[in-house]
Amino acid sequence: EVWEDASNKVAYGTPREYLSGNEMDSAMNYPLRSTMLDFLTGAADGALTVRRMASQIENYPKENLYAMMNLISSHDVQRAITILGDVPYYEGMPAIEQSRVRMTLDQAMLGIRRLIMATLWQMTYPGVPSVYYGDEIGMQGFKDPFNRRPYDWEHGNLEIRDWVTRFIAVRNGNDALRTGDILPLYGAGDVIAYARTIRSGYDVFNEEKEPGIFVVAFNRSRTETLTVDLDVSDFACGVFEDVFKPSRTYEVERGHLRVRIPPLFGLLLRERQEEQRYERKAGILLHPTSLPSKYGVGDFGKEAYRFVDFLADAGQKVWQILPLSPVGSSYSPYQSISAFAGNFMLIDPEPLAARGWLKEKDLFLPYEANSGFINFDRVRTFKKEILEKAFRAFRAQGAADADYRAFCEKEAYWLEDYALFHAAKKEYGGAAWTEWDAAIKRRDPDALRSLRERQRDAMELDYFKQYVFHTQWNRLHDYARAKGIEILGDMPIFIAQDSADVWAHQHLFDLNEDGTPHTVAGVPPDYFAVNGQLWGNPQYNWDAMAAEKYAWWKRRFRKLREQVDIIRIDHFRGFESYWSVDGKAETALNGTWLKGPGKAFFDAIESDLGKLNVVAEDLGIITPDVERLRDDCGFPGMRIVQFLIAGNSSGRIGFTAPENSIVYTGTHDNNTTVGWYSRDIDEVLRESLANLVGTTSDRPRTICQRLIKAAYASRARMAIIPMQDILGLDERARMNTPGTVGLNWRWCLKKDYLLEIDPQKLKALCVRYRR
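The structure assignment produced for this chain is given below.
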């Protein structure tokens, strides 16, 4: 029995150490009793009440907080209903006067309403609820002996007893109300609210428990129904239902829960467990270039098949990759010279040798290729040389077989333009197409015919490279499909200005007369870039696109859908509205938002191709209109743990992911989780995150593992983890840092990487979280 704050008790002039771990496991929670009664009777407002709650939560070790004896009445204090009914009492009140006091009807009604609220509070709070006999039927009385009368079997209030019984049943049936985290949500005036949560399958003691999310809210006003807005963005994203009246529901909108509370009422809401609509899956993000290879860059060779086998053994269902398109001088797969062609550096040389097109000595790489980083310049030179050799042998053998001819015919709608573009590039010393002679720049038929004749060999070499690329990728894709692995591919929304597509379809882009961009793509200023980001890609001429019924886009979607099973649309928000910047601008500061093609675009695509299996990259500046377009199309969005975990308006941390979403610990544009935790966030957030996942702040790899587990445990239909996070690698393994050049896209795995991963542990996570 400790009447005061057990964490700060001074007795007989001596500070006590009751909660230091070697004296007490628990104490009678009179501080909580005072907090409850003061709020309910009007002695303390909501703001002070929440501060008092937060103080105890912060100051008490969780082992003690969750063992505290939570009481409303006891044999040493007045009966709860007597206090809550505002029955007058004064110190020194004669016993005879106390014995004669009976509550008026108004006092009794007030006391009953408040006592039901207090009991709901007691049964949904951390600790061990202790019901003092008679409180459950509304027995009255001042202090001893009037609080110790015999049990009133005949006149007890059955309404109170019914509510107490129901509260106890709900508590006993839900782990979250016993050992879940407690999150103060709101405190102002006549209202307080808090949440009890188990989010990732583990309670505050890191024990496996059933997930659950509850919100508890009280309105002490005697006359007014009050509406409050609760920020639940860190832990909830679905629909809440009244535990005792499930037909009464409250939907979370943009991270906020708006609840209407009648006077003298306590509301207990539970996040509804919606019926699962989608198959739950897990996957890994790894671009093929990052696979280990003795040829200097990951390719479609043996290591790719080995990786697919690993995915299958680890219970994974998805392999996410970046765009497979050709790369320019920056080697970024998002600045490609073609929306349809493939990157020849991904071609595996060994099948070419097996066909007799290369000799064994041709496969020798004259430098070390297992450094963990790609030297793209060397690799490009090496692959270019051996593919030219293979092409000469291919032609010498008369190997233009039926498959090759069929490929060239099938892909002619883009292949010839791509090869012509390369040929012209060669003639003009690599100059941008806007600097070519006018006849070639404007695609004069006679000029193009002459170009074909002059550059026939170079064009046929491009045909050959693309034939080999597509043949090898299709074989790998078929192998993955046979193993139950889906490929999640990437479609950048924009095309590079100096590309085959812009040159071949100039009328479909917003260009000046000389072919330079009239307007370009980018994003407006934000916290990270005060002048915005100027990407430089030409904007589309959406009117011209619509006039042709989006034929170019339909071919693009059809082509990518042949190569992958799921399509991630990069910068999805650009289809709703896009930031348009003058083509001569040096920054993105003075752009304009213009409406994109919207739902009509996707309707047109699906009218020809059928239902699209799409992931919408909905990151950045997202408005309700963008969310509406995504939802109207039925596309899942992306939820990045690193972005979500950074805190909300209430200073809490956590993350949520609705079922129709894909959750990631990070992407190719983020630091690795270990690097992010160690380098990119402050000490306060590091400590908070460590507490959230149940470990200490000096264990970044453990933090990473726990966040992976939380992603798997989330409601999201798919959980995708970058390979760097699977391995627990630091910032040196980062794939890309937006806005920088030089070291991006170069990270790759070392050849023995699988020795560091136990696929059965990943598979166990998939089983545990039904993925």
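Interim note for the steering committee: The chain has a mean pLDDT of 93. The first helix runs from residue 30 to 41.
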